[in-house]
């Protein structure tokens, strides 16, 4: 009886510290189900490598030189939407801003750098199969992102224009600025938040409105009355 062999999960490591890259590669290659196919010191190198050899999972550091890991994650998602690449953030940052922005950028895993190597291997396997994973140390942080319900009764109703596409008050503010043609930097400045947070809000808006880009979001907002036309001028 022949046994069907399963192709290993192809992993790319994006990390600017060589010692960390070497340690990750050695630890992950001990697992037969995982194969580290590429290592990149910068986000720019990673994007070029992905064009030549597509990984299943990218392990991404946030604190990279030049282009940071958050922006790199967004570009991977945008440029490879047909390849189903998964991104796991591996970082020492556990602030709400980083967690929220990373999830908004498209990452499906968020791990702290003190994670046990065998646990990281398990996370890679789970995420490759379609799961999401948050390090226990940031779960409480992530829960702060979600708004508390106004009541605990489950009421099912047909969506109307008054629902504003289920956008939060902050997202409605961002949407009004999008309609005005503001960039992420300008939105961040006006709302007194970081550019990362502004990007995360924009990503969330695009997902909730089921549109592909900012222009489509602005058109839909005006067409469906999701923003007041006078306030958007």
Please, could you describe this protein's structure?
The structure is a single chain. By secondary structure, the protein is of the alpha/beta class. It has 2 domains: 9-143, Response regulator (Rossmann fold, 3-Layer(aba) Sandwich), CATH 3.40.50.2300; 161-223, Arc Repressor Mutant, subunit A, CATH 1.10.10.10. It is built from 10 helices and 6 strands. It has helices at 18-28, 43-52, 69-79, 96-105, 117-128, 136-143, 169-179, 184-191, 195-209, 214-223; strands at 9-14, 34-40, 57-60, 86-91, 109-112, 133-134. The chain has a 6-stranded parallel sheet with strand order 2-1-3-4-5-6, with helices on both faces. The longest helix is centred in the C-terminal third of the chain and has 15 residues, at 195-209. Residues 155-164 have low confidence and may be disordered.
Beta percentage is 5-15%
What's the pLDDT, averaged over the residues?
Answer: 83
* CATH evolutionary superfamily of the largest domain: Response regulator
Element pattern in H and E = EHEHEHEHEHEHHHHH
List the helices and strands and how they pair.
Blueprint: E1 9-14, H1 18-28, E2 34-40, H2 43-52, E3 57-60, H3 69-79, E4 86-91, H4 96-105, E5 109-112, H5 117-128, E6 133-134, H6 136-143, H7 169-179, H8 184-191, H9 195-209, H10 214-223
Parallel strand pairs: 1-2, 1-3, 3-4, 4-5, 5-6
Helix pairs in contact: 2-3, 3-4, 4-9, 7-9, 7-10, 8-9
């Amino acid at each position: 009886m022949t046994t069907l062999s399963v192709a290993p999960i192809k992993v790319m490591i994006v990390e600017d510290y060589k010692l960390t890259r070497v340690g990750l590669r050695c630890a992950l290659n001990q697992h037969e189900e995982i194969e580290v196919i590429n290592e990149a010191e910068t986000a720019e190198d990673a994007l070029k490598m992905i064009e030549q050899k597509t990984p299943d999972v990218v392990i991404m550091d946030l604190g990279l030189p030049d282009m940071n890991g958050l922006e790199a994650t967004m570009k991977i998602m945008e440029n490879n939407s047909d390849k189903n690449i998964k991104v796991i953030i591996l970082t020492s940052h556990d602030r709400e801003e980083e967690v929220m922005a990373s999830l908004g950028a498209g990452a499906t895993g968020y791990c702290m750098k003190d994670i046990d190597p065998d646990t990281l291997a398990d996370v890679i396997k789970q995420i490759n199969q379609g799961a999401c994973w948050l390090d226990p140390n940031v779960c409480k942080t992530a829960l702060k992102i979600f708004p508390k319900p106004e009541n605990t009764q489950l009421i099912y109703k047909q969506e109307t224009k008054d629902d504003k596409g289920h956008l939060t008050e902050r997202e409605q503010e961002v949407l009004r600025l999008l309609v005005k043609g503001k960039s992420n930097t300008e939105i961040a400045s006006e709302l007194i938040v970081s550019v990362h947070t502004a990007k995360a809000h924009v990503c969330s808006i695009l997902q909730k409105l089921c549109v592909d880009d900012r222009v489509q979001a602005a058109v839909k907002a005006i067409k469906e009355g999701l923003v007041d036309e006078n306030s958007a001028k």
